[in-house]
Amino acid sequence: MKINNYGNQSISSLKGADRVRLRPSVIFGSDGIEGCQHSIFEILSNSIDEAKEGYGKLIRVTLHKNHSVTIEDMGRGMPLDYNEKEERYNWDLIFCELYAGGKYNNNSGENYEFSLGLNGLGACATQYSSEYMDVEVYTDGYCYELHFEKGHNIGGLKKYKKQYESSGTKITWKPDKEVFTDINVSSEYFHNMLKRQAVVNANIEFLFIDEIKEETTNYLYPEGIAGYVKEIANNEEFTDIIVIENECKGKDSKDRPEYKLKFQIAMTFCNVNSTLEYYHNSSYLEYGGSPDKAIKNSFVFSIDQYLKSENLYSKDEKKITFVDIQDSLILISNSFSTITSYENQTKKAIANKFIQDAMQDCIKEYLHVFFIENKDEANKIARQVLINKRSREKAEKTRINIKKQLGGSIDITNRIKKFVDCRTKDKSIRELYIVEGDSALGSCKLGRNAEFQGIMPVRGKILNCLKSDYDKIFKSDIIVDLLKVLGCGIEIDSKHNKDLNTFNIDNLRWDKIIICTDADVDGFQIRTLILTMLYTLTPSLIETGKVFIAETPLYEITTKNKTYFAYSEYEKVTITEKLKIKYTLQRSKGLGENDPDMMWETTMNPQTRRLIQVLPENKKDTKKKFDLLLGDNLQGRKDFIAKMGHEYLQLADMS
């Protein structure tokens, strides 16, 4: 029988460092690497707040080899001496008391007007969650030193006269493995975080010293978010870089205090890159909140109104969505307010109603005037948004069609015309021969090893997938049937068709995919079109070495006792020169005319066949070659034929 001892004495409270050490996720959002990362940002945010107020323009961040961190600023130096009002030392308040700080009166402009640190939690919580922490402060001609271990101060405050080049605060600490499950914060986190802070804090320099990788990196954006937008666009934008700025005051509701808001939005439209990022009081808003709602609502409203006023919608066409705008939009929003309602301590979204309304009204007004005064750019934006919308809608129809065609777990042997499966279900030995036409199907079927070799015939020349849109591609029965036989889905990485990506190599039903066509011009063209299809729709099959070409003989050289096969002109000459007896020479017949024994020996027997594995040694060069020979670069193809065509004339003559 379970004894219930729950009563008045069952209630307890966490005290001191245990408030963080036993429940780090309450403060940092996680007890894993994300929480550890956020603890680092808490210390950095205090240095950023100093620099934003005009005290010091350089912040040094060092990642040490033991994964401890040092953050050093050139600010005023945090006050650590005795606080008569609180009747405690400030160092004790800052580093040992949650909800103690100098940023509670920022709306009055007393200390920090637009503060990133807000709740008086960061320095104390990070100290509590550290294995050790050392603090050095240089101010008023003194050096102040503190040392903490596992949330406890060791030795009190040390203060002595010292000459120094600059006032400031230097904090070194190591996150505690007893608090966080992982403390090995990557260099990439520091690079991403510091770059973002440089972007939204123009003219503040961040120096990252990575002792693990022995690298030093500097981040500085004199133009702030406008410079960042320019960097992302990389000269591919089709409108000028636009900057919207405003400062105002307001309330979230009648009974709430009035506060200041200032914001800057930098943006451009581009068809190569798209980015949407929100920052508030220098903190990156992963989930956006108020600015995100303001921007989405105002952009959809403004561009939709313009499309209607210019009669650019087709009859009965659906209204645009923000996705259609975002596909071609690079936009960075950087806002600051003296009162901020964050969703939680991790500051990934804000919920201020006034911020949303003020930004929304300002953007609507700006875009309305901009579209009137910049007709050419307005038309470019509007027409591109419509292109994005129609591409998205077409892609959705295609996705539904593909799902119907490629989906399900049906028995493909009963659904795909003329496909011949093999007996084994062991994917590690199964081979699929893709052959040219019904006659080759007959020869291969008789000549194969039915245990592990399956056959899929293609009827004539298939569609050039590089020059066709997805809607047209997936109306091709040959392509759809072949994809069904492969079983691995498709991988598509285009802007408007990302949802079409269903590829999973674990679902591939074959160990080898072998393209087997006649050794003539038509055969080579069919082979190339099949390769193009695989390159376009399932490139990972090529990259992982699953695709092969079966070499078929050019010549049969027959003597009284033996038949030799030559796969090239060179081999023909080599064989005939060695023969001392009478022989007959003839061009090899097409695959459909081969007898089963010859088919097995020359093309299907793993011991005697010749397979060429298709491996793109250089992905970039492979793409360039496919685009040149089969893509839309007509002039490039003409130039290539003029320069190299003579090398292929002999092949054409032989066929």
Give the CA-based shape.
elongated
Percent of residues in helices: 25-40%
Model regions low in confidence, pLDDT < 50 over at least 5 residues: 102-106, 648-655
User: What share of the residues does DSSP label as strand, in percent?
Assistant: 15-25%
Number of helices: 21
Distance between the termini: 92 Å
Mean pLDDT: 85
The tally of strands reads: 26
Structural class: alpha+beta
- Quaternary structure of the protein: single chain
- Cα radius of gyration in angstroms: 35 Å
User: Quick one: biggest sheet?
Assistant: 9 strands, mixed
Describe this structure in words.
With 655 residues, the chain is of the alpha+beta class. It contains 21 helices and 26 strands. The strands form six sheets. Strands 1, 2, 5, 6, 7, 8, 9, 10 and 11 form a nine-stranded mixed beta sheet that branches. α4 (90-96) crosses α5.
Task: Give the tags.
655 residues; alpha+beta; 21 helices; 21% strand; disordered C terminus
What are the SSEs and their pairings?
Blueprint: H1 18-21, H2 24-28, H3 33-52, E1 58-63, E2 69-73, E3 82-83, E4 88-89, H4 90-96, H5 122-128, E5 130-139, E6 142-149, E7 152-153, E8 158-161, E9 168-175, H6 187-200, E10 205-210, E11 215-219, H7 225-233, E12 242-250, E13 259-269, E14 275-280, E15 283-284, E16 288-289, H8 290-309, H9 322-326, E17 329-337, E18 349-350, H10 353-373, H11 375-406, E19 431-436, H12 437-447, E20 453-458, H13 470-473, H14 477-486, E21 512-516, H15 521-537, H16 539-543, E22 547-550, E23 555-558, E24 563-566, H17 569-578, E25 584-587, H18 596-604, E26 611-613, H19 619-630, H20 634-644, H21 649-654
Parallel strand pairs: 1-10, 14-17, 16-18, 19-20, 19-21, 21-22
Antiparallel strand pairs: 1-2, 2-9, 3-4, 5-6, 5-9, 6-7, 6-8, 10-11, 12-13, 13-17, 14-15, 22-26, 23-24, 23-25
